[in-house]
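Can't paste images in this forum, so I'm doing it all in text. The chain is below; anyone willing to post the predicted structure tokens underneath?
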Amino acid sequence: MTRERLVQGVSELEARVGPPLPLTQSLQKALLGAVFPLTAEELTWVARENEAPSSVLSLLGSLPQGRFSSMDAVTSALEQDASRPDPLPPTPSLPSSR
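Text version of the structure:
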């Protein structure tokens, strides 16, 4: 799927269901009742119990190992992850002509 097609699909979806919630608001709803510190796995459990959308569960699943002391720590870790550029796909090796 091309980036242009992906953007078009997101635009069509937003036209039907509205724009997505800001990250902080989505996390607060997903982690309602969480008692910190928690690991990424524990955060995911809480979010599942709160019936969080799959996009939030996916984000929580991408958190690094370790314990998070607060909601701000979780948000900060997710924002740092989002600011990293996507890694380049591996370049296929050419067969040797020997």
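The radius of gyration is 18 Å. The first helix runs from residue 3 to 17.
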